[in-house]
Structures are given as C-alpha cells and as structure tokens.
Amino acid sequence: MKTTLMSCAAACALALGAMGSATAEDLRFTVWTGNDAHLAMLNGIAESFTETHPDVTVSFETIPAGDYTQKLTFQIAGGNTPDLGWMFEDAAPAFIDAGVIENVGPALKAMDGYDFADFSAPAMKLWVDGDAVYGIPFSTSPFMIYYNKTMFDAAGLEDPLALAAKGEWDMDAFRAAAKTLAENGSWGFDFKDGEGYDSRILHALMPPIRAYGGYAWKDGDCGFDNPEAIEAVTVLHDMVFKDKSIVPPGESGDFFSGGSAMTINQISRASRLTDAGFEWGIAPLPTGPAGESPVIGQAGIVVFAEGDQKELATEFLAHMTNAQNVEIMAQFFPPARKSVLESGVLVEANERIPADQMENVADAIENGSVLPSSKNMPQILAALKPRSDALWRPDADVTKALGAICAAIQPQL
Amino acid sequence: MSRANTTSKPARGFRVPGLSLRRREAIEAWLMTSPTIIGFAIFFLGPLIAVMVYSMAEWNLLSRKMTFVGLANYTDALTVNADFWQVMGNSVIFAAGLVPLNMALALALALCLSRPFFGVVFFRTIFFAPVVTSAVAWAIVWKFLLQGEAGAVNQMLASVGIDGPNWLREPDWAMAAVIVTRVIKMVGLNMILYIAALQTIPRDYEEAARLEGATHWQVFKMVIWPLLAPTTLIIMVITTIGSFKVFDHIYLMTGGGPENGTLVLAFYIYQQAFEFFEVGYASALAIIMFVIVLALTLVQFALRRKQVR
Fold first, then answer.
1. Which pTM was predicted?
2. Region A120-142 average pLDDT
C-alpha cells in the first residue's frame, strides 16, 4: 500500500513537473479564423519560431469573428488572458484605452534586424500613440469592387477594371453601370456581405463619402452632415430607391451566388469564388470629386498586458511580423511592410487573383486610409444604427437623417 | 418482548447517540432539502445579490474599473436616459400586442380542438409544433419570408393585388411583424393549457344551459368563460411576464431596429452588458426588469386570492 502511494505521488510529481515546464513555454494566441489554410500557415510560422526558441509551443485558439471582441473581453475580465491575439481595427482603440494591451514599441524598436521603420506610417497610425506601439497590423486589406464579368459582358458594358485602366471608373460610371445591370435582371450592387444596412454601415457609407472628400469623424468633429458626405450619401440613396440598382434594405442579392453584378469586399473573399460559375474580377473603388480614396480594413496582432509571458509573446510577435513571415502571410493578408509591398511579393501572392488586379490592391494599400475607429466604437455604432435606419427609407430626407446621425454620435466622439 | 422489538428495529432514519428524534428529523429534513437550497443559493440568490451590488457600481468589464455610484445607475435610467423610456414603451407595446392576441387565438384554437373528432390530434400537433421548434430556425425562416418585395409573404399579397410593406424594415410594421410571428410560435402552449381547462368543465353544465335555451354564445359567455377564469388569469400573467423577457426573437429578427422600434428591455440589457460592457448599468436595468416581473407576479397572487374568496 505504502509503495503504491509513493508511486502515485512520484507519478503526480512528474506529471505536474512536466505540465509546469510545458505551461511555462506555452503561448496562447487568439485568432478569428478557422480556415485550415490560414491555421496551417500560422502553425508553420509557430514551428519556425522553435528554431530560436526550441521549448516554446504556440497554440492558436479560434474564436468566431462575430463573437471575437465579446469573448476576448470575457477572457480578459475572467483572468484568462491570452498572451497574444488578433485585434479588429474598430475594437483596438477601446482595448488600448482600457490599458489591456502591452506597449511593445521599446522592445520591437530595440530588436536587431526587425526594422520597425519598414512599416508604412499610414498603416501604423491606429496602433501608435507617440512612442508607444500597441500592435502590428498583419492585414491591411483595402476594399475593392468585385464584379461579375459575365454579367457586364451580357449587358454590353465595359467592366470596372477596363474603365479604371482608362481612368474612367468614377462614381458616375459606377452608378450608370449598376443601373444598366439592374435593368438586365440582377441587382447592380450589393453592400459588403449584404450587411450594409446593419453591421456594415460604415463599410457602406465610407467609400463614397471619402470619394466625395468627406469623412465620418475627425478630431471630435462629426462629418456625416458635411456637404461632401450629404452629396455622397444622396447618390447611394438614389441608387437604392430611384435607380433600384443597389440591393435595398430587407432584400438579399448575394454577389457570390450571382445575385448581384458588383459588391465591395476584401481580397480574402476571393476564396468564395473558387467555383463561382461565372467570370469575375476585382477593380479599385470608383473615384469621386476628391479623386482616388481607397478605404482599408485592418487587423493587428497585440500582446496582452496581463498575459503571463509578455516578453516571450513580444518575441513571437516580432518573429511573426518580420519581413520573411509577412511575405508568407501576404498570400492571405495584405501586408503593411513597405519592403514587402515594393518587392512585388503581394502581386504574385494570391493564386485566385491575377497580378494586374493585385497591383490595384498594392496601390490601394499605399494610398488608402483605414476605416474610422474610436474608443467608444460600440456606443457610436449603437447610436448610429437607428438613425441610419431612418436614412434608408424611400422618402427619407438625407440631409436631415445625416444631421440626426451627427447629433446622436457627437457625445461619443 | 416489546422492549426487544424497540432495540432491534430503529424507529426510522439514522440513529446517533444523544440525538433526540426531533433533532434527527430536523437533520434529515435539512439533508433532504439541502440540494435544492444549495442550488437556489448558488444559482439564484447569489447572482441576484451580486446583480444588486453591481447595479450600484459603475463597472466596465473591459477596463475592470469598479466605482461605487449608489443609485446613480437607477436615476440615470429613470430620469436621464431617454432611450430607456423608449425601450420601456416598446416593451409595453410588445406585451399589449402579444398578450391579447396570443390568448384570444389560444382560446379559439382550444375551443375548436378540445372535443374529440377525426384528426384532432393532428391539428393539436400542428399548432403545438412551433413551441418546440428552435427559436433560431423560426426567426431566420420568418425573416426570410418577411423580406421586402422578394419575401414569400409579400409575393402572396401581391398575387391578390396587395402591395405589402417591407415588414422588418419599416418601424410601423416591424413591431407588428415580431408580435405576430411570436404569437404563432408560442400560441400552442396556451392552447394546450386552455384545452386542459376546458376538459375539466363538466358537460352537464353546458347541457343544463342548453336545456334552458341558451345559445352557443350564451353558453360560452355564461358558463365556459367564467369557469376558465383561473386558467385565463394564469395564462395572462405567464404570457405577460414572458413578453417582458423576450430576447431571442428580437435579437434574431430585427436586432432592436428599425430605428429602435423593437428595442425591448431584455435586448437593451444585453446591449449594455455585452456590447458596451457596462455591467453596472446593465445590472441596474436588470433589477428594474426584475421589479416589473415581480410586481406582475404579485398581482397574479393577489387576483388569485381574491378569486378564491
């Protein structure tokens, strides 16, 4: 009996010891992708980290994108803070403001061979506050127009890529094409993921507003009620209710299944077009009176301030975002490193999108600006949504509705 | 002999020297009820007390800063926050629309389906099936059916020359749409309760009334309806409480829109807690909802007591 007890105790001690050493070198990294190809790539990068850190294991934990910010918040509040994580651009300011993200600036800038200055300044704007650096963007992905070339050809229209090459792809051409395509039996245009009236309001409004020279908010000032924004949103409103070319509220017209001739999205959505059954392409956003105004969606990698191994986590962040691994990630996530953008790696990175179309993506990354964000983003979106509902009525007074949006969100800016 | 019997057979339960029968019975009783008491304390009383404490704090889940603010969350909700009163108004409209419609339809169905006839079980099953159908599937299917021009409901209306509204996108219609779809989902439950109550009413009463020359309407008004009163009261209170607590249906069909037209209290609490992470404020709202539901329950008890007398 005594021997058995001693054996058990020894086994437990060994197991605990083993567990202890594994935990000491285990990094937990939250992501919102469950895509096998993405995870294989991430695990490959983690594997290469073991060349310099042989005892370290990085485990990627997938949280669905829709629940990501909420569940991550609960993990942090519950004391189960991950070491690193992906962070949406609209959530980043609130997390930084709450002090839950580690300043990795001093460590990264001091690291040999990391070349922090290689990241493009516009792409870093969201993640930098003075000398502090709260994250490194791993995906700086501009919004592009996806078009159904088969539908354009059937309607006898020049496609957006051809028009863009001639410098004729502007808001007028976009509106005219959408109207003609709608008259041919499909919807002319669908907002991002069909959610332009709900969870993707800013994705719907910002491209035309910026093309007309407007902005959502800037330095505490709401720009939705400025003349440029009013003009831009009036065009959209007319396209929905007068031209009937944009999928209206309460209807569906999914581009990827052939319901609409055009939509707006990022290059990662090209994976949905593998067996599309029609010819397609991507083109830049239409220009407006303010010229080209690419809009970028961004996501970064952050180290959490309450993680158990911040130093090791920062080392992994540096490894993951060094030039070599940024090149690897470019197949899915457009990079913010200037050297990678200039090397032409991005242009050849996506097997589904031809190089000439990817060049437009690279241009948009260089010239675009990230979607607006704020530390009060959830409150802003909640205040914006009901006023945006009022905007999307057939008889809406656009000026009045945009004024109401500003009145509602101003206290949060 | 009797002494030998007493020593070999304990009276009942366990025996511990020095413990009286009364004490032993008390311990037994506590042991029997302790699982329920512990469960109640852990899963109801504890969280309730915690929510009461949180409701008097400004606590942001993300920053984890908790500051005691007394009754400020309550005064803000009741006197400052204009959204709160819109939300309360929506909750009252939802309840005022859902409860009478649900009860009237449930009673009508029960009257039709309480007597045996060929196929009665089939029809009862048809009307009860939505109750056990997944709320998510139900809401998604109805959201699809209630689309604008392309929705099946509007296509049917168009076939008879009616230009249907964009049900879930127009504030005037969205509340009506969620009420009606909720009624169709839940009416089967109240129908079953009414059928059970109708089947307990002796047929003699009805036959006696008919012998006296009562019409169908008079039989219903003078005999059946009064005898259904206790069931009606219970159904009314349960349905009203349920309507104040509705969340899933709103979350899935309208997300509180359009223009906050279907933003009801339970959904508003969710929004404050899980979108804005303002746990303190959400707790205060939850306590307000608790008080409303408690008041409705007390009204139920009071009315039942009055009826018994």
1. 0.82
2. 91
Query: Residue A16's pLDDT is what?
Result: 45
Cα A1 off chain centre by: 62
C-alpha A6/C-alpha A103 separation (Å) is 48
Closest-CA distance of chain A to residue B147, Å: 5
Beta-carbon separation of B170 and A198 below 8 A = no
Q: For residue range B9-67, what is the model confidence (pLDDT) as tens digits? A: 555 556 667 788 888 889 999 999 999 999 999 999 999 999 999 999 998 888 788 89
Partner residue facing B166 (CB), from A95, A99, A250 = A250
CA distance B184 to chain A (A): 21
Nearest CA in chain B to A375: B276
Is the link from the previous residue into A372 a cis peptide, with omega within 30 of 0? no
* Structure confidence at residue B8 as a pLDDT band (50, 70, 90): low
pLDDT attached to residue B2: 43
Same domain for A163 and A66: no
Residues found in chain B: 309
Instruction: Residue B295: give its domain's CATH number.
Output: 1.10.3720.10
Closest among A205, A194, A203 to A237, alpha carbons compared: A205
The pLDDT value recorded for residue B175 is 95
How far apart CA A352 and CA A270 sit, in angstroms, is 7
- Indicate if B157 and B12 belong to the same structural domain: no
Residue A320 lies in a domain: yes
Q: Could you tell me if B300 lies within 8 Å of chain A, comparing CB atoms?
A: no
Tell me: do B214 and B274 sit in the same domain.
yes
Range of the domain at B82: 77-308
Please give the residue range of the domain that contains residue A161.
144-293+376-412
List all residues of chain B from 149 to 178 with a beta carbon under 8 Å from chain A.
149-151, 166-171
Residue of A nearest to B275 (CA): A378
ipTM of the complex: 0.77
User: How far apart, in whole angstroms, are the C-alpha atoms of residue B298 and residue B245?
Assistant: 17
| In a shared domain, residues B226 and B149 | yes
Q: Are residues B49 and B81 in the same domain?
A: no
In a domain, A5, yes or no: no
**Does any CB of chain A come closer than 8 Å to the CB of residue B259?**
yes
Using the beta-carbon criterion (under 8 Å), do A378 and B148 form an inter-chain contact?
A: no
Q: Is residue A228 part of a domain?
A: yes
How many inter-chain contacts (A to B, CB under 8 Å) are there?
Answer: 68
